[in-house]
Amino acid sequence: MLVRVITKKFCEPNVVMYSTMIKGLCKTHDYVRAVGLLKLMDKSGCKPIVVVYSTVIDKMVFQKGIPPGAVTYNSLIPGLCKVGRSEEASKMLKEMSDDQKMSPNVKNFSILVDALCKEGKIEEAEAIIKIMPERDILPDIVTYTSLINGYCLQGYCNESKIDEAMHILQEITEQGLEPDVVTYTTMLQGLFRGKRCEDAKELFLIMKETGCSPNDTTYNVLLHGCLKNQQYDDVKMLLVEMDERGLEPDVVTYTTMLQGLFRGKRCEDAKELFLIMKETGCSPNDTTYNVLLHGCLKNQQYDDVNMLLVEMDERGYLLWASTLSLLQSRIAAKILDESLLRLIGKLEPKYSINASCLDT
């Protein structure tokens, strides 16, 4: 019934509709259709939640003991990984490998490696990669990118992990595997997190020299990393480069850059960037304006406050509680004119918003 609803476009199914149908199919032991509906749910863009995966997995495999077929394995292994049950996924992959009628592919192994790395189980992920050739399956760039990401995630508190990630990148390149944009972007993010800005810049040059074109995600990582590490002179260069490649920062990227510039006391650069943002047709949102007001007030840049409040009013945006508090304190201290109170009153939030991210 639900499949007909989807294919005929009578209405747009949601998570609740899918979940109800999948649970019902599992109760009647119709596991083939349950798995099929799970895959259809994922493909339709309605992402299955943890409880949906768990329902199919527990009812079918662990409660009833029904041996899954190859197609079912391919659905359940990523499902187990998504709900944080990588150990069970590992056992299932082993069962699949031991069954002569079914052969796991590189995608099955890569999904498990990715899940283990995200859980911080690097050694287990490496063990999986080592046994892949024994099954006549060679790890691909997706597999190694997951491993690199795993090491980078651990690099926050252990710089040697970043070194290990760089070593893997060098090693796979020497083996003839070509890192793609995801691989390079992952490594760049890890280097910036480890405050290794010069290494990140050098890797970015290598990336371009090898013919791998950066995408908007790559530039977002670079911009965020440079601002976070106070490499302000590189920000303008990156923006120019993005423009030359036909890539445009989105509102989130611009707002993040504005916040970074204010944190670095680069108020004039922040104002200039805000003008560029509007000139390029990127419309500021309420977060952008709150970041601007917060930055101006914290850095004693009071001349632009009235203009920003007027623009917020024209766009129908509201002040965040933290921004409102700053404005009120400046008026109370006679730094800002009381005439602003009427305009501020129109922009008062209807509820309190936690905006600790605005601390500059």
UniProtKB/TrEMBL annotation:
Transmembrane segments: none annotated. Keywords: Repeat. It comes from the Eukaryota. It holds the Pfam family PPR. PPR repeats lie at residues 14-48, 69-99, 105-139, 140-179, 180-214, 215-249, 250-284, 285-319. Belongs to the PPR family. P subfamily. This is Tetratricopeptide-like helical domain-containing protein.
